[in-house]
């Protein structure tokens, strides 16, 4: 059973990475802003799974993005950081009494607002880290903040489109 879940998560990682690289990286607008839908994989990774495996797979996902974006580890760092803080964000937004040991707790049990806030925060942190680590220039801060904002908005909308198409029951 555990190997089946692990295989499913690894296959979904490669599916969403392929979708990101082949489709969504080609949808660039506003000087390099493109939707980062692979954050959906971080959101949907099972809550009760091994934290070490989650960190490793997050690193692999970020490394795949780095290989195709030629960004030298920026995506890997940002993805691992978001993976690291994801459960804390879920705990704060869902409720402080959130119990990760409950077997029936999944992302599908979150309200729309909880789901939206979690995805929005994960994407915002991820995109901010990528933009400011990759090409931060103090003289261009307004332009960079607008790029972050547009990428976050474009990513969240795209994530919800993909979520509706592929993850809806």
Walk me through what this model shows.
The protein has 169 residues and is mainly α. Helices cover 70% and strands 0% of the residues. It has one domain (2-167). The protein contains 6 helices and no strands. Helix 3 (51-69) packs across helix 4. The longest helix is centred in the C-terminal third of the chain and has 27 residues, at 141-167. The protein starts with a helix and ends with a helix.
Q: Oligomer, anyone? A: single chain
**Number of individual domains:** 1
DSSP summary, beta strand count: 0
How many individual helices?
6
Q: Return the string of H and E elements.
A: HHHHHH
Helix content: 55-70%
Average pLDDT: 85
The poorly predicted ranges are none
Largest sheet: none
β-strand amount: under 5%
Structural class: mainly alpha
**Cα-atom Rg, whole angstroms?**
16 Å
State the end-to-end distance: 22 Å
Identify the overall geometry.
Answer: globular
Keywords:
single chain; 169 residues; globular; 0% strand; mainly alpha
How do the helices and strands line up, and which of them pair or pack?
Layout: H1 2-22, H2 39-44, H3 51-69, H4 74-94, H5 112-135, H6 141-167
Summary of the model, kept short:
By secondary structure, this protein is mainly alpha-helical. 70% of the residues lie in helices and 0% in strands. The radius of gyration is 16 Å and the shape is globular.
């Amino acid at each position: 059973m555990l190997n089946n879940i692990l295989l499913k998560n690894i296959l979904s990682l490669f599916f969403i990475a392929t979708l990101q690289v082949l489709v969504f990286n080609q949808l660039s607008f506003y000087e390099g802003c493109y939707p980062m839908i692979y954050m959906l994989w971080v959101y949907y990774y099972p809550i009760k799974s091994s934290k070490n495996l989650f960190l490793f797979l997050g690193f692999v996902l970020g490394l795949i993005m780095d290989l195709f974006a030629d960004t030298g580890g920026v995506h890997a760092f940002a993805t691992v950081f978001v993976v690291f803080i994801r459960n804390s964000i879920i705990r704060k937004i869902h409720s402080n009494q959130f119990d990760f040991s409950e077997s029936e707790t999944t992302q599908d049990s979150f309200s729309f607002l909880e789901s939206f806030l979690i995805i929005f925060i994960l994407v915002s942190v991820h995109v901010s880290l990528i933009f400011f680590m990759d090409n931060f220039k103090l003289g261009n801060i307004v332009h960079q903040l607008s790029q972050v904002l547009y990428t976050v908005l474009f990513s969240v909308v795209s994530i919800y489109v993909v979520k509706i198409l592929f993850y809806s029951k």
